[in-house]
Each structure stands twice: as C-alpha cells, then as structure tokens.
Amino acid sequence: MPVYQILSNIRAVPAPSPEARQLYSLLKSPHLQALLSAHDMVAQTDYEPVLPPLPEDLPEDEEAMRIVCLVKNKQPLGATIKRDEETGEIFIARVIHGGLADRSGLLHPGDLLVEVNGNPVEGLDPEQVIQILVMIPNTPQSTKTQKPLYVRAMADYCPLQDPAIPCPDAGMVFSRGDLLEIVDQTDIHWWQARKLPSASACAGLIPSTSLLKSKQRETWWSQPFQAHTCIKPSGFRRSFRLWRRMTHRTRRQSCYSCSPNTSALSSPYEEVVSYQRRPDDPHRLIILVGPSGVGVNELRKRLIKLNPHTFQGAVPHTTRPARDGEGTGKEYNFVTKELVSLVCPRFLEYGEYKGHLYGTSIDAVKDVIDSGRMCVIDTEPHSILSVRNKTFKPYVIFIKPPSSERLRQTRRDARIITSCVVNRPFKDVDFEEMEDAARFMEGKYGQYFDRVIVNEELQDACMKLFNDIQLAQEGPHWIPAAWLSTED
Ligand SMILES: Nc1ncnc2c1ncn2[C@@H]1O[C@H](COP(=O)(O)OP(=O)(O)OP(=O)(O)O)[C@@H](O)[C@H]1O
C-alpha cells in the first residue's frame, strides 16, 4: 500500500491510539517518504533481462543442488575456479569481495561446479564458465567476515607479470608505499585487498606475505651480483653545506655501506594503523629527502625562516675546532674524534671533510623535539631507517624534480653548489643525474615516503611543504602499527 494511502487511513481513524499517532508522524517525515517512494519505484519496475526458466530435467537429488543464474554484463564474474587434480572436479576457489559473484550472494568458495549452461563442466575450460552454474553447494558455507587488516606495501607487484596467479584479471597491481586494506586472508597464498583510499568496491588478488616473500627471494637470487648498480653517488646530496661536507669518496662509501639491499628479504607488507597526534604528544619528526640539487635545502631553509619559533633543524656535530665567535650548540656541537667514535651508532649520518668529521646525531634531533618545536631535517634516504621508530614517528616528504622541461625552465637562473665546482649554473648533466637519482630513490625507498612534493615553482613548493607539515602533525595518518604498540 502506498504511504499516502496509509496516512489517509490513519487520518480517518476518529480517536487514533498513541502508536497510530507515532506511526503517522514517522511516515510524514520527508526522509522516510523519499525512502519509501524510492522503494516503491524499484519494486514496481520491470528489469531486463528476464531470467531463463529452470531446466526441466533436474536430477533426482536436486535438493543438494543449487541452480544459479548470474547475468553478466562486461564485468568479470569476480570468482576463480580450480580443478581438483585427483578427481577432476571443478570448484569455486574464491569469490572476490565486492565483485559480481559476491554481490549476488550466489557463489561461495568450495561450491562444486556440476554444469555450465546445461553442459557438464568436465573437460571444460575455466573461461567457459558463464551465466548458469548448476552446482552442489559447499557445506558448511563459510560466510565468516574477517576483520580487515591495513598494510603498507613495501614492494611492487604486477599480476600480469606473475605466471603463478590463478587469474591475472582478478589480480591487483600495487607499488611500494601503497596502502592496502586486506579483506580476505582465507587462502594461504592469495589474499584479497583494496587500495586505499578505496574508490572501488571490488577487491583484487594479491600474494600473501609468505608467497610474496618467496617470490622476492627467487628474484633476488636470480639477479646477477651487482655491487654498485643501485647507487649513483653523484645524484645523492653533494653540496658543501655546513655539516654535509664530505668527499665524493666518503659519500660513495657511506651510501653503499648504509643502504644494504635488504628489501628483498624483509616483510613485503607492513601493518599500519590510523594515528592522530594528540596536542600533548611530541611533534613528529619531519624528514625531507630528494636528489641532490632538487632544492631540499632551499625549501628547508625557507620553511625555518617562515616560522623559526616552530620549525628548527638539528644542530650538527663536528670535530673541527671552533672558530672565533662560534660557540658549541649554535652552528655546531664541537666534539672530539674520540667522542664521535664512541657515539657513532647514535649518528643519523656523518662524513669526513678535510680530516674533520661532520654529522647529525639522533640526540640532536631529539633535543629539538623535546623543546616542543618541529624538527625538520634533510637526509640521505637510507638514513630514514635509523629514526623510523615510535620515538620519532617520522613523516617523510620526498622532494621530486618536475618534468625535464619544467626543471630546465625553472632552474634557468639557479646555481648549483657541488663538491667539484662551487656555485655554477646547472648543466644538462646535473638535470639528468637529478632525474636518475629521483627515479632510483622512489624505486628503492618509495615505501617510506608519506608525501611527494614536486618542486616546480619554489614558492608553491614551499607553501605545499608548510601545509603538509601542519597536516602531518594534526593527522590522521596511517603509521606502522608497531609505533603504537606498547611492546618495545
Ligand atoms: N623550484 C626552484 N626553482 C628554481 N631554483 C631552485 C628551485 N629549487 C631549488 N632551487 C635552487 O637550486 C639550487 C640547489 O638547491 P639546494 O641547494 O636546495 O639543493 P639540494 O636539494 O639541497 O641539494 P644538495 O644537498 O646537493 O645541495 C639552489 O640554488 C636553489 O636556490
């Protein structure tokens, strides 16, 4: 009965009960009326196509059978099937969350396929499984919903390049750094996940942790030994800035020794949780990384100048003697070589220039944070790992060069400071090195980047940086679950 009819019936009652009055006022509400009207419209519409009639010659034990009619459009079925090697029977292997089969509620993992379009499935290709499936349902049906697990991908994956995936079309591509919501871990090899922020309701297949680890191990072992291929020292930071002073040779060594190729053997997914910094929590450490010459230092300097009471860098250490007017704790912490060697592991990065050591200690970073300010540092990307922990909860921003053309246009009047030639205009080779290094850094360390800022127009990039840092401190953000765990 339409809603207006019910309303008029209630109105016609001479002395309506309190329940009738309440029903009347509920049904009068515009939201409910809109809902009921939508319902009536849907219920009264004829939908195409009309489903075919059930087959007449149903087998005698029909009670154990389920006849399923799925009318497919261009969408994939959203289920994979597998053949039992011993019996030759074909089963539904998995139903993809949010896919056609899942939304229909008609197919379940473990269902045994008996017929497809009236033809026995025996000998049929999986691709031939189409609209009508006659099957024996799996009992008991597993409808248990799992609590989603949120992870950050620490590796790249492309289903089209994976010959082992049961159905490449059902696979999901992801790159290191992507946030994934894992909705199904029933299968030990193939999980189902969505990428966050999730626009698509349909999940995709991804390898489980153990499977992806074994794939990584295989790839790693099958690669020819390459001692230096991943390092392009010239593209890493090289300016002669204060504590960055180090020779080309030391930098190469420090890059090489500090960035072991362990990614192939570490966990491919990192569990993450949503985190919102409370006003009393210490500020998150802000780390800027980027290829040499891209403008990391320029941006950091501008940011600190913008608000020196809020942003601060860490005071570097050096073994060079203090000059007139220099006091320890201002430009530098002046220390002896012996002290540096004692506290070496507590250094984020360090290098040698003209016989003196220069470096940034983890304690210097902590001092800034303890003072209530936001510590903004720029480092080589491999140094991120030394502070990637619950104490610092670092927020890593990758400063990326713009397109080749814009890079050359915007740096037309800029000057580069290098260890070989001080203060000269940029050359083509500098841009090429910068682009190579940016690609390399994204490829190797992209999983640690919370944000990427393209440094095209300096002023714009600086404002983006400023806003991002505010957002980083005010959250919410996904951070490794281990950073919130109470265990050490
Ligand atoms: N968006 C930009 N447009 C024009 N010039 C820029 C831009 N960003 C940076 N520069 C200039 O490029 C030069 C190199 O920048 P900067 O010293 O900050 O490099 P860097 O990334 O810190 O590299 P390194 O550590 O090797 O010095 C500087 O002269 C800087 O002013």
Write the layout of secondary structure elements.
Blueprint: H1 3-12, H2 18-28, H3 30-44, E1 66-69, E2 79-83, E3 90-95, H4 100-104, E4 112-116, E5 119-120, E6 132-136, E7 149-153, E8 179-184, E9 190-196, E10 204-207, H5 209-222, H6 248-258, E11 269-275, E12 286-289, H7 296-306, E13 311-312, E14 317-318, E15 333-334, H8 337-343, E16 347-353, E17 356-361, H9 362-370, E18 374-378, H10 384-387, E19 395-400, H11 404-410, E20 415-416, E21 424-425, H12 428-445, E22 451-454, H13 458-474, E23 477-480
Helix pairs in contact: 1-2, 7-13
The protein binds adenosine-5'-triphosphate.
Adenosine-5'-triphosphate is lined by residues 237-239, 290, 292-298, 410-411, 414-417, 455, 458, 461.
The biggest beta sheet is recorded as: 6 strands, antiparallel
Please estimate the helix content.
25-40%
Number of discrete helical segments: 13
According to CATH, what is the class of the largest domain? Alpha Beta
Which CATH architecture of the largest domain?
3-Layer(aba) Sandwich
Q: Say what the CATH topology of the largest domain is.
A: Rossmann fold
Task: Report mean pLDDT, rounded to a whole number.
Answer: 80
Domain L27: 1-50
Protein name: Membrane protein, palmitoylated 4a (MAGUK p55 subfamily member 4)
Domain Guanylate kinase-like: 283-470
Family: Belongs to the MAGUK family.
